[in-house]
Amino acid sequence: xxxxxxxxxxxxxxxxxxxxxxxxxxxxxxxxxxxxxxxxxxxxxxxxxxxxxxxxxxxxxxxxxxxxxxxxxxxxxxxxxxxxxxxxxxxxxxxxxxxxxxxxxxxxxxxxxxxxxxxxxxxxxxxxxxxxxxxxxxxxxxxxxxxxxxxxxxxxxxxxxxxxxxxxxxxxxxxxxxxxxxxxxxxxxxxxxxxxxxxxxxxxxxxxxxxxxxxxxxxxxxxxxxxxxxxxxxxxxxxxxxxxxxxxxxxxxxxxxxxxxxxxxxxxxxxxx
Length: 273
What we know:
Elements: H1 23-42, H2 45-60, E1 65-69, H3 71-88, E2 95-99, H4 119-125, E3 134-138, H5 145-156, E4 161-165, H6 171-175, E5 178-181, H7 196-215, H8 232-246, H9 250-260, H10 263-270
Parallel strand pairs: 1-2, 1-3, 3-4, 4-5
Helix pairs in contact: 1-7, 2-7, 3-7, 4-5, 8-9, 8-10, 9-10
Pathway: Amino-sugar metabolism; N-acetylmuramate degradation
Protein name: N-acetylmuramic acid 6-phosphate etherase
Organism: Mesonia aestuariivivens
């Protein structure tokens, strides 16, 4: 007999009379709740490892990683996807975030977007998705129709699926091939899953893409040698990385970076010039 599905993300806060607390007490209590998140993520490390292995395999074979979600969950997926190109120098088409309601939903809620059962799959089809890719559904509740139905359709089309949710035994976790269930408990403000649930999802997303990119060779030592040099701060960081790796002066390293346009290439070629 399967365990009962209980929405712990919707359960009453462990705190009451919040409006009567002073600022110091509110902050202390929020922080106390946040400390539970990392411990909850730790309990899911084996599941996170399993999903990461599959993501790496799909990407090594020419596939892409898709995140699909609604509301805060969708925005977090888009955030993680959007940070991969500047951080690791990969194509913006390698990790793709999709949100219910489209791009306008990134900033403003789109009424009933998460309840459209067929739209999630339609949105994925716009990218000509195939079995080479992998789709990770993100939903704190684990019940969002837009996400659940999209993963169901992916399964039918032999597209591997994973999920990140914060309720145990949710419909989303049951449909995903590789589910991650980070049970953070009730939110400080009842039902406000942008808080602990959102923090948990962000932590897992960081782990998935960072570990994947390291496995794909996008980090050398502990540094982002393939990062995009999109502003002066990153150019300076890249110059110092070359300087540390080669022993060349700051000026020589700066010239090499400008010549090759990439930290990795500069380090590789600087001694051969």
